[in-house]
Each structure stands twice: as structure tokens, then as C-alpha cells.
Amino acid sequence: MATVTETPTGGMADSAHLARVTFRIRRFNPESSEHAFWQDFTLDIDPKERVLDALHQIKWEEDGTLTFRRSCAHGICGSDAMRINGKNRLACKTLIKDIADLDGGPKAKPVVIEPLKGMTVQKDLIVDMEPFFQAYRDVMPFLITTGNQPSREHRQSAEQRERFDDTTKCILCAACTGACPVFWNDGQYFGPAAIVNAHRFIFDSRDEGAEQRLEILNDRDGVWRCRTIFNCTDACPRGIEVTKAIQEVKQALITRRF
Amino acid sequence: MAIEISEVAKGDEGGRRYGPDNPAPVIEPPRARTHRTPRTTRTNFELYGWLFMRVSGVLLVVLVITHLVIQLVLDGGVSKVSFAFVAGRWASPFWQVWDLLMLWLAMLHGGNGLRTIINDYAQRDTTRFWLKMLLYVATVFTVLLGTLVIFTFDPNIS
């Protein structure tokens, strides 16, 4: 009798665009267990939504203990980089329809979500970003000039600006560094993101600290540990040609020497 | 729908859960930058190593392929290679220098490649150190022994 009061036609129309998708999330809580484990959440969700919306739905409606970073939720702040179906992406820029198995049924593959590799997991999808930012600080990511305080702006031509335009797009999400196998094994390596941000100043015509930055990146854990496997370029959610930037720094080091 | 947490509060001390008064142990990131991290060396060693790999690789393509063709393909192939054949080739200083160059370049190229792989893959500092020591000893031994043989080769040995 109770079913009569429901509105079958209206309900169908409301949920016709929804798809049933399973999200398999790597959970870790050091305060309850020292072991990480996988947890499946099956949601009815619009496949045109983003993975971040699915995470919100899980956190707000299913399990409030699910922990992840996000700030702007629109691909600018770089907080929600994570490993989705084995590739580092921003959860807020990845549409569910692009990565999920929407055929449905019991054999449908789940969307697998893990924290970034190569950094210590603190809880669920949150990793310790300190080594990443340490490498970033080490390349001195700020304008270095000499002489008196300028009385007018630093002039720069459009061509000079274009030289380092690609590397200004970095949002420090760590998707590239978290995709680098050299960084996975040895956190002493600067990682692609730090080199990209050094590149941004090394090739800036207004900056005078290129020599110091090149000297830092010429060291044991600098650009020479890059194996040019292009994981970073694949991972970058801003489409920066990361490996090319690293190669340009190598080239600058060699032409400086010879 | 959701898998239950199989192990609850494992590793807690005295039966107490981790919490604000009993915090979980801090997990140090592997090989983080600490005050014990080695200082920068300020040398161009890695630059020269990187360049050497490219230059020696190109040279080795020519040296090794020519070597293989002479040894294995021309004049009846591998069956002709004997003591007399080697003695005949090393009578000429050209082939002595050729083989010497090939030995040094191949050993240093391979040694530097293995050093890179050890640096990338050995996780513990002591493992890394001893693997590299083994590699350096093996490389120096092979290079010196090969050089010795090329220069002191005696075709009339009985």
C-alpha cells in the first residue's frame, strides 16, 4: 500500500540521467589501524559530474570520515590532485563519464581513487606535501635582481614573456612530482614541479638569479636524475610540457659550460 | 555496500585508542630533506656523466657493430676466431687502440648506467653504498685487467 503513494513516473524522470558507478577508495586512518584498505562506495550519480562531486556525495551522504583536500574545486588551487584509475589527475577537472565504466552490471570496473604516490599518506587521500614544497623553496621561486630599487617597472617584450609562458601555468598540485618514478624511490630528487618553477625564473629576462638556480639544479639530485620518461607531462592537469622544460634547463646548463 | 574496517585500533598501547592524548606515531617521509642530508657538492660531475653517456653511446654504436661484424660475420664467421686470429689483429696498433677504446668506453658507460640504476632503485643508504662499492671494484678490475692484456699480449706464448 505504501508504494502507491510514491510517484513512479516522476521518480523515473528525475533519475533517468543517473548512472550507478562504484568508487573504490584507498582508505587509511593511523588512529584506527596501521594498515590501509580499499573501500567501495556505489553511488547513483550524473556521469557528467566530476570525481570531486562523487567524493563530496560520499563524504556528505555516506561516510563523513572520508578525508581529502580541496579548496576552490575548479582546477586552480591545485589541492585535489590524486591518483584516479592509475593516473594522477585533479578530481575537480575529471568528469566521471570520461573515466568510469558506465555499462553497469556486476562486472563494471570501479573507479579507483588513491592518494598521490611517493609522499607519505597522512589520512585517506591526504599526503604530506612538505618534501614537495621543500624542493620548491630550494629553487628560490621568486624574482632576484641586483642594484637599486627600481623607479619604474621592469620592461619585457612579448617574445621575452613567451619564452617562459608555459611554465607560468603551474598550480603546484604535485601531480607531476607524484607521477615521477625517480621521486617515488628517492625523495631527494627535486622533482618535475620544482624544476618547472625554476625554469619559470631562469628564462625570465627580468630575473638575475638564473646562475644560482642553475647551480642548484646542476647538483647530484638536480635535473641530471631526470630519465625523460614523460610521466610528468602526461600527468600535468594544466598541459605544461614538463619534460621539455626540464630538457631546456639541461640544455642551458650544457651551453653555459661549453 | 561499504567494507567494514577489519582491524580496529591495532597497534595502540595499553588497550587505549590513538587520540589527542595518545597520538599515533609520526611517520617520517622516506629520505626527507633533513639536517643530515648531504650538502650540495657544487661540481659538474653529474653534468659530465650525463654528457659522457651520450657521446660514448654514439661512439660505441660504431665501435661495437664493426667489432661484431669482423668477429662474427666476415671470413667464415665465428669459427675463424682463434688465438692466431686475435694475435694477428693485435699485431696492428690500430686494432689495439680500437679494442682499448671499446673496453674503456663500454665499461665506463655500463658502470655509470648501473650507478644510475643503483641510485634510483636502492632504498637503504647502506645497500646503496655497498652495491656501488661492488660496482666500482668490478669496473676498475675489468678495465685494468683488459688494458694489461692488450698491452702485454705475447703472440709467442707457449
UniProtKB/TrEMBL annotation, chain A:
Boundaries of every 4Fe-4S ferredoxin-type domain copy: 160-182
InterPro entries per the UniProt record, alphabetical: 2Fe-2S_ferredoxin-like_sf (IPR036010), 2Fe-2S_ferredoxin-type (IPR001041), 4Fe4S_Fe-S-bd (IPR017896), 4Fe4S_Fe_S_CS (IPR017900), Beta-grasp_dom_sf (IPR012675), Helical_ferredxn (IPR009051), SDH/FRD_Iron-Sulfur (IPR050573), Succ_DH/fum_Rdtase_Fe-S (IPR004489)
Any Pfam family matching the protein: Fer2_3
GO biological process: respiratory electron transport chain; tricarboxylic acid cycle
Cofactor note: Binds 1 [3Fe-4S] cluster. Binds 1 [2Fe-2S] cluster.
Residues covered by the 2Fe-2S ferredoxin-type domain: 19-119
Superkingdom assignment: Bacteria
Keyword terms: 2Fe-2S, 3Fe-4S, 4Fe-4S, Iron, Iron-sulfur, Metal-binding, Oxidoreductase, Tricarboxylic acid cycle
Pathway in which the depicted protein is active: Carbohydrate metabolism; tricarboxylic acid cycle
Keyword Nucleus: no
PANTHER family: SUCCINATE DEHYDROGENASE [UBIQUINONE] IRON-SULFUR SUBUNIT, MITOCHONDRIAL, SUCCINATE DEHYDROGENASE IRON-SULFUR PROTEIN
Protein name: Succinate dehydrogenase iron-sulfur subunit
Record organism: Streptomyces radicis
UniProtKB/TrEMBL annotation, chain B:
Keyword set, alphabetical order: Heme, Iron, Membrane, Metal-binding, Transmembrane, Transmembrane helix
Domain of life: Bacteria
GO molecular function: metal ion binding
Major localization class: membrane
Transmembrane residue ranges: 51-74, 94-112, 133-153
Gene3D superfamilies: Fumarate reductase/succinate dehydrogenase, transmembrane subunit
Chain segments carrying region Disordered: 12-36
Location(s), subcellular: Membrane
GO cellular component assignments: membrane
InterPro entries (UniProt xref): SQR/QFR_C/D, SuccDH_FuR_B_TM-su
Pfam families, per the entry: Sdh_cyt
Keyword Oxidoreductase applies: no
Protein name (database record): Succinate dehydrogenase
Natural source organism: Streptomyces radicis
